[in-house]
Amino acid sequence: MENSGNHQDVIVPPVEGVAGGGTAYGWSETVARDPTLLKGTIDPTKVHSSELVHVWCMPSTANVGPQDMPRAFEPISLLAARNERESVQIAIRPKFSWAGSGIAGTVQVQCTDLCSTSGDRLVVGESLRMRRVVPVLGVPDALVPLEMPLTQLNLFPGETTAIWVSIDVPNAQPPGQYEGELIITATRDVAESTAQFLGKSERHQLYRELKNCLDVVEPIDGKSPDELVERVNSATSSLRRVLLSPPFSDLFSDNGLVDMMDEDAITNLSIRLKLNLTVWDFVLPATPSLPAVIGISDTVIEDRFGVEHGSSEWYEALDQHFKWLLEYKISPYFCRWGENMRVLTYTCPWPADHPKSDEYFSDPRLAAYAVPYSPVVSCGDTAKDYLQREVEILRTKNHWRKAYFYLWDEPLNIEHYEGIRNMAGDIHAYAPDARIMTTYYCGPSDSPLASNNFEAFLKVPEFLRPHTQIYCTSEWVIGNREDLAKDIIAEIQPENGEEWWTYVCMGPSDPHPNWHLGMRGTQHRAVMWRVWKEGGTGFLYWGANCYEKATAPSAEIRFRRGLPPGDGVLYYPGQVFSSSQEPVASLRLERLLSGLQDIEYFKLYASRFGRDESLHLLEKTGMYQGPERYTHEHMPIDVMRGTNLD
Amino acid sequence: MENSGNHQDVIVPPVEGVAGGGTAYGWSETVARDPTLLKGTIDPTKVHSSELVHVWCMPSTANVGPQDMPRAFEPISLLAARNERESVQIAIRPKFSWAGSGIAGTVQVQCTDLCSTSGDRLVVGESLRMRRVVPVLGVPDALVPLEMPLTQLNLFPGETTAIWVSIDVPNAQPPGQYEGELIITATRDVAESTAQFLGKSERHQLYRELKNCLDVVEPIDGKSPDELVERVNSATSSLRRVLLSPPFSDLFSDNGLVDMMDEDAITNLSIRLKLNLTVWDFVLPATPSLPAVIGISDTVIEDRFGVEHGSSEWYEALDQHFKWLLEYKISPYFCRWGENMRVLTYTCPWPADHPKSDEYFSDPRLAAYAVPYSPVVSCGDTAKDYLQREVEILRTKNHWRKAYFYLWDEPLNIEHYEGIRNMAGDIHAYAPDARIMTTYYCGPSDSPLASNNFEAFLKVPEFLRPHTQIYCTSEWVIGNREDLAKDIIAEIQPENGEEWWTYVCMGPSDPHPNWHLGMRGTQHRAVMWRVWKEGGTGFLYWGANCYEKATAPSAEIRFRRGLPPGDGVLYYPGQVFSSSQEPVASLRLERLLSGLQDIEYFKLYASRFGRDESLHLLEKTGMYQGPERYTHEHMPIDVMRGTNLD
């Protein structure tokens, strides 16, 4: 109440708008090309769809919510490497309501193949996919697959609907200019079209009438010719009456039976959006340059999908999750929590001597894999025997360089650190070259390693050595002081195979990069930009499916109490949104993928001009300067990506 | 970033929730009574609906949005006088998705009559209505009528849907206890049920097959008996095949043709909510005790509905709006703005000698009416002649005591004030007892009436007298200093027929009572509580339909630029939300009505115990103590209402 009670200085409120005939009325008048078509009942088959809906295009880093207002449509022009996914959003908002049944109207959205001038194609349904952006807690997040190449969408009055269009460029796709179309057509709504359908009671009546025709003539044997003729006459006249009855009447025009060619969804009243894609002559590496290891809670899978630990359905469920997540260029590990944040982590649920083990670990898309310290599924062996056998098999493999052990989540005191040391000792006894990863954000609280917390945190590698090779620290510790990364790196011994990785979880919070719901799109994507700038060589995220417990696949998704919304949840069970069992990605998972792809661009640039120049590029484009200074707009990302083409 | 960069004092983040097996997992586990029914595809006809949806009840002052979380269901127990409307909200949120097609599921909502023990009824569809609460700009606001007594609603994953249930108690309703039910049943979704329908192409094929049967036997004449038998055999076997074909196959069970009784929407799997209403022995007065005059822009009606000023469709459109708004116990006036905030206001579009004039002005529900200063529709008369004739007719009528002239909206300088004086002089020449109303929030800026703004504002009555009888001031001027109301009242001369009215428009803003979108429900309702406490005898609101210009009835609603959302818009064109032409009320309009009804309760209490005691009651219940101190909860309202029963 900036004005209340201040009567010495009554401020004149702006009158604009209070005057019904004043400047505020009609400021953004919607002018129809032919207003008479929009009076009364609007027939979408008689009006150009652009009269009925706004359509505009938004970059993949935009969060397009129901309240987003229309913008001018700008042609879609994308750039992608081979083995890269690039995405863009199409926003649609009704200008009028034409459905008359609670929704504003229905639109058909159709997508064509993208074709190059030399005849190469990116095929709809394979390389091209459309997903509907569905809000979660009111924030655009879930990407629910749409049927391809043609889908119907209900639009709601005063609400913007967004479609996420993704193009996956295959490895072997010839570089070049590709062009396709998105075609949007306002249609009659579903309720109206069901009037063309025959319901149960009409079918019932039809059945009775036809059955009656049959009963009149049958049995034929034993009837005199005259009686037969009479009965056939009766039956045929009944049948003729049936054929002229309402269930069939709309099949006729003046020229007889109408043509049953499928009515083409595309008409000259459709909105046609050109989609241009440049595939450039660079192939993103099959194996991501930065291992991004991401946890999948097996407990959550067991509870929600009702699969018993170790059963064949359980293996199947885990297999489905593993394969689906691999598409996002991340390296999944399954995990379950024990006491004191001890974790059992494993990338492959099968033991090392199972054929699936090699299949998983040899997959070129997998950059790193977790080996369990003890049996995942009880197998009669002691933990030690099991560990020994697993390690002895795996260390002979070529993929062993991807292996790591993740034993404890964020040790907090001497007892926790001792736990890590003991387990690491067991592992190193069987494989001195095994990599142990430890996540932490502080030293042991009951035995301070230094006089202040940050110094104590810095001393953890010295304290844990040689029982940890991958020192994985929280970005939250660094806060906005990027220079501290140098202090951390100074403690790492890469010459002895040590690495510095980072992670985000609850923190850091806004405005720093993280994957919480409600953060900006560039903020989600910048998680990986930050990694590149700080110089970490790997990344960990604690959970991609860690929503609240539920015991049915289609149960409502709830985030866990005490966590920022979206934390630990990067995708959803498909059953919540449709009858499909395929998981539903979040926008945030797509932006994680984009960030990982950005790293390949940085790396390419660095390979040509050096790492320092790549950091200079980040700064010069305004894309990323620090955890509190990164672009809110999409443009600098396109500029960065285009730079590599020069 | 409360923690960033402060490394002397790294705070341990709460670990709750980060641990997948820790306290955060499973804290609000959804336990199904029979979990096996919820695995895989859920059949809503086999599971109790309470397993599939949360249902709870919310008071009419709650803003129930899509993100609202379930609460325990408490029985609905309402109190209403006769000639009163009382409302309550039912919130529904899916626990699971069972539809498998983008929505979580469909529910049927059914409502029974309310019956008293002595057999009196409040009839569904007449006294009982259900409307769906639809968000506008993301805020629950529009109340879109639902079919009665049975309606279908689509629920969306992770979204709460609210139904606004209103009971209008007729004047003559016998007091007593009434009871009815709301019945909510999860059903198969529409897409699934259309599978039971026969589409165009199936009907086409069916038609061909039947036609073929006919062609085989016809013409009958001229066929030998043998040939006929052969052909009839062929036709009957075709017909038999048709009757066993998919279009009819679902009509059979093992026991032959299934019974075609309409499947009852209510099953023993339904959720049944008791709805109790006490109708008490008090009749709200037919004519509201507080005239609430509210502007309707005729310009907006003309543009949006495409009716030409003065045409028969125009009269019809205005008539529809007038009648609809009268139901809300407000006194509508139509208005159009002229230069310098001069306004032409009129409650009845027809001239005083037209039968409609008496019909409008004699309506007991109308508490006050605006008489236009000049012809609304050009009629050949000069403005003066017109005014003289109108006044001379109206002043002879019994309803003349309701008449007022509203000539200028918020005069700001001497020229404006002179304009009012001149017009008022003309009117008083013909009718010395005519009431002129003037809205204002300051004195003339170019000729200060006092040394400070508030003192100048206080002096306006002295300055305008005798050219204004109703001094209508902005609540914004008073701010949080209610005591200033006494200073204003001290300047008014009720003994000379003068009154003090108030208005809200852009201001006051939050936390003060007003009707902006996004304010609390009690904040909307408190607009009228404030009027009662301050002692004004009438209320004005500038616009109920003043949304942005559009030229088609179903065009998207946009609020005017420069105004707080919802300001000047209390209802919406029905065509935006459905095929109905009936306007769609906002929650805020319902709360305005509730506030006006509250005033009748205050008045009743004051008639028994005096006005001071009525103010004490407001304070004692915690309902309203001042523009910044009023209840956020509904309970005190029920307590106040119940007090009158003691």
From TrEMBL, chains A, B:
| Pfam families the record matches | GH123_cat (PF13320)
Q: Ranges for the Glycoside hydrolase 123 catalytic domain?
A: 382-603
PANTHER family recorded:
ALPHA-1,6-MANNOSYL-GLYCOPROTEIN 2-BETA-N-ACETYLGLUCOSAMINYLTRANSFERASE
Q: What is this protein called?
A: Glycoside hydrolase 123 catalytic domain-containing protein
**Provenance organism:** Forsythia ovata
